[in-house]
């Protein structure tokens, strides 16, 4: 009796709700923390990045126009789907980071809880960040936060699941759509997360995930004229400076890299970084 | 048109010195650069000689601000508030003097500097004075950033100064501010007001000069916060300059706002709003309603009413209380307005101005309308920053939204309709930081102002305006 040969998974990109290979046909070897071969991941190209931006732009009117309640429901649904695949994610995190099974399970739990936390923000951030402004005249005057648009996200190299969730959730919960460059070293949990997203009622294109070299892909996104913001959390200082300079071409909102403790209370900063304040005036009269 | 006798505001109230130094560490000192002259754009006469701050002078100003930061940030908020209240009161007391000086140096009608700019300046200091001891209730913490480097434009010189200095000081920061090259005088008078208010030396430093001086402020390594109002072009340079640093930045830049008039709008009110939208302050307004989008069915009626109204505008001496349209701020700006207007005509749009005598001296440009404008025309895409309106048409609300948003800018927009649900539907879809419905060009210190997209980032005014000056 020979041992059954495992059926391996092909890790592809996640663009517009579909799972294409990189148009470049390239892949790269992903290894465990011990150096064992895990998979050949897709190595996304400039063309893939541009396709992902198009998908994110296309999804923006629907997602930003959805009710806050609906967006909250969908984020909560993602958390439910993630919880249901806890064992699979724990195994991937353990392999990627070389942590114990117990620790990996805790990291998955934190990721699920973070999603639930952000899900609840969808219909509360306007109350916290909006305002009824008492102007000196007969005018109704209201400020509300609105999503910036399409946001590029360079996910942290460490914490391939918890860090990833912690940067994506605050961007999309407010109505932005995004293109994420997953951890180059440990991209597999990101693609498995895409399988969760694909089955969570999340409209295609709201989250697009690229795997490959951040050094290569991030500058294309930073210089892309149809991207409105960029989160450089996972970029090295040199890459972050380069991307921030390129982001100036269309004055993208830039979130600079900062060392983060992913288990700490995230605060509202990652949401507000990609929110605009819109103020509407109307005269009051009979 | 009625004939009015001239009603000039007296300029005797203003005492302009022959030359001005830099205001650093509470005192006026000479600048090391080659001084320049600031002129009255309505007469081209020289008003005063202005110092130029070299990079070394900028460094001295930043050092003074840094030194002052320790004490200023440690003051109880209630004490900082009292300084700001004092400043607000002195501005009110000296408001006529400031208004005349502003009109002299900038060219804007005294009616606007007196009735719009100055009341808003005082109100802005009052508003942020009240925040200084209430920061912990705003939910943004109460930790200041440090030294703020602020560079402001020439279109609302003192108003932009108040938008920059009031929130910065309320939050406990100290300031190095550079007014625009062509309009330094009210900022330098403000320096005297700081002395009268006995503001601690170094808390506010005012340095003058051109782009190089501004670049030295923005690029100074000991500046923690950069606030800029001006062109999108310079805003992008600033965004590149601060890349890779820890400097916090807010940018309030250009615009190409759509002013959208639906067929059910109150026509006379809409005409007043259109005129206010583009001819207020000679169109030197980043949020000006420079693209008029008219629903096709009312096009003829609206254009007829608008042209009749424009024929009543009075252009001339900014100090005359009857003047609606004053002088263009500089020869350079006048040349830019002329160039883009000529391009508009060359590209096939139809140009119209009311009969309008221009003064023999000074920089003036008649109120101008272009009809038959296509979205691809440069006058529909580029900020002219002058009294020039481009008129386009639309049929459906969806088309209006698409055309309004078809610009890299996103500062403001106007919507004229009597139907509330349509107004709110439009307001939701317009990608702009301020939406004026059935009004235009309203400002208030309690109301956040700032743009989407290439109109910049960050907000000034309201609670949102505190975030720019706090370490959140």
Kindly give the count of domains of chain A. Answer: 1
> What's the CATH H-level superfamily name of the largest domain in chain B?
Aldehyde Dehydrogenase, Chain A, domain 1
CATH fold category name of the largest domain in chain B: Aldehyde Dehydrogenase, Chain A, domain 1
Number of separate structural domains of chain B: 2
Helicity of chain B, as a percent range = 25-40%
Following the backbone from N to C, one meets helices and strands of chain A in this order, namely EEHHHHHEEEHEHEHEHEHE
- Roughly what is the average pLDDT of chain B, rounded to an integer? 97
Radius of gyration of chain A: 20 Å
Per the principal axes of the C-alpha atoms, what is the gross shape of chain A? globular
Q: How many individual helices of chain B?
A: 14
Beginning-to-end CA distance, first to last residue of chain B: 56 Å
CATH names the topology of chain A as Aldehyde Dehydrogenase, Chain A, domain 1
Give me the side-by-side strand order of the main sheet of chain B: 13-14-15-12-11-16-17
Give short descriptive properties of this protein.
heterodimer; A: 286 residues; alpha/beta; Aldehyde Dehydrogenase, Chain A, domain 1; five-stranded parallel β-sheet; three-stranded antiparallel β-sheet; 10 helices; 10 strands; B: 472 residues; Aldehyde Dehydrogenase, Chain A, domain 2; 2 domains; seven-stranded mixed β-sheet; six-stranded mixed β-sheet; 18 strands; 38% helix; globular
């Amino acid at each position: 009796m020979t041992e059954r040969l495992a059926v391996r998974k092909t890790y592809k990109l996640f663009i517009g709700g579909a799972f294409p290979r990189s148009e470049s046909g390239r892949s790269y070897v992903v290894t465990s923390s011990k150096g064992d071969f895990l998979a050949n991941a897709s190595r996304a190209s400039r063309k893939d990045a541009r396709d992902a931006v198009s998908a994110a732009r296309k999804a923006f009117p629907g997602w930003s126009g959805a009710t806050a309640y609906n967006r909250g429901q969908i984020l909560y649904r993602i958390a439910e789907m993630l919880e249901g695949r806890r064992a699979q994610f724990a195994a991937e995190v353990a392999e990627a980071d070389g942590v114990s099974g117990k620790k990996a399970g805790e990291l998955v739990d934190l990721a699920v809880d973070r999603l639930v936390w952000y899900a609840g923000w969808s219909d509360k951030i306007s109350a916290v960040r909006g305002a009824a402004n008492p102007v000196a005249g007969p005018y109704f005057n209201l400020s509300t936060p609105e999503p910036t648009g399409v946001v590029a996200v360079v996910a942290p190299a460490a914490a391939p699941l918890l860090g990833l969730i912690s940067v994506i959730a605050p961007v999309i919960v407010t109505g932005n759509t995004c293109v994420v460059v997953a951890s180059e070293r440990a991209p597999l949990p990101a693609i498995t997360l895409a399988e969760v997203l694909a089955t969570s009622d999340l409209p295609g294109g709201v989250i697009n995930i690229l795997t490959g070299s951040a050094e290569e892909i991030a500058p294309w996104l930073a210089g892309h004229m149809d991207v409105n913001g960029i989160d450089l959390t996972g970029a090295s200082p040199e890459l972050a400076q380069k991307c921030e300079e390129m982001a100036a071409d269309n004055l993208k909102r830039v979130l600079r890299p900062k060392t983060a403790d992913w288990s700490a209370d995230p605060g509202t900063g990652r949401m507000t970084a990609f929110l605009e304040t819109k103020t509407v005036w109307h005269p009051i009269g009979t | 048109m009625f004939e009015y006798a001239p009603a000039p505001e007296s300029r005797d109230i203003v005492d302009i010195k022959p030359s001005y130094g830099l205001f650093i560490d509470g005192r006026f000192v000479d600048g090391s650069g080659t001084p320049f002259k600031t002129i009255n754009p309505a007469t081209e006469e020289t008003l005063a000689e202005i110092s130029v701050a070299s990079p070394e002078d900028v460094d001295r100003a930043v050092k003074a601000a840094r030194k002052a930061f320790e004490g200023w940030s440690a003051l109880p908020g209630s004490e900082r508030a009292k300084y700001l209240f004092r400043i607000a009161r002195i501005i009110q007391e000296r408001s006529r003097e400031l208004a005349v000086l502003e009109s002299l140096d900038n060219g804007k009608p005294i009616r606007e500097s007196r009735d719009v700019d100055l009341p808003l300046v005082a109100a802005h200091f009052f508003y942020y004075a009240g925040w200084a001891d209430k920061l912990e209730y705003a939910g943004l913490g109460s930790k200041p950033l440090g030294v703020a480097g602020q560079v402001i434009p020439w279109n609302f010189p003192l108003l932009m100064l108040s938008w920059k200095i009031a929130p910065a000081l309320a939050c406990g920061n100290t300031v190095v501010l550079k007014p625009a090259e062509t309009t330094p005088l009210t900022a330098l008078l403000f320096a005297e007001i700081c002395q009268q208010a006995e503001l601690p030396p170094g808390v506010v430093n005012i340095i003058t000069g051109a782009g190089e001086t501004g670049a030295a402020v923005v690029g100074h390594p000991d500046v923690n916060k950069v606030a800029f109002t001006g062109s999108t072009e310079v805003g992008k340079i600033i965004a590149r300059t601060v890349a890779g640093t820890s400097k916090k930045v807010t940018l309030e830049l250009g615009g190409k706002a759509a002013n959208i008039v639906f067929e059910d709008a109150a026509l006379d009110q809409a005409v007043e709003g259109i005129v206010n939208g583009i001819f207020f302050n000679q169109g030197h307004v980043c949020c000006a309603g420079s693209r008029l989008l008219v629903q096709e069915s009312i096009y003829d009626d609206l254009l007829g009413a608008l042209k009749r109204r424009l024929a009543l505008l009075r252009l001339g001496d900014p100090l005359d209380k009857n003047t609606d349209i004053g002088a263009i701020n500089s020869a350079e700006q006048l040349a830019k307005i002329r160039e883009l207007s000529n391009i508009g005509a060359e590209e096939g749009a139809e140009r119209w101005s009311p009969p309008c005598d221009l003064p023999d001296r000074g920089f003036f440009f008649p109120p101008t309308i272009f009809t038959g404008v296509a979205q691809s025309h440069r006058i529909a895409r580029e900020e002219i920053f002058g009294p020039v309106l481009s008129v386009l048409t639309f049929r459906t609300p969806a088309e209006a939204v698409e055309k309004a948003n078809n610009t890299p800018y996103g500062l403001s927009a106007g919507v004229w309709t009597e139907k509330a649900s349509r107004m709110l539907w439009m307001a939701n879809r317009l990608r702009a930081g301020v939406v004026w419905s059935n009004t235009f060009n309203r400002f208030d210190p309690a109301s956040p102002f700032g743009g989407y997209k290439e109109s910049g980032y960050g907000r000034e005014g309201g609670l949102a305006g505190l975030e720019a000056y706090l370490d959140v």
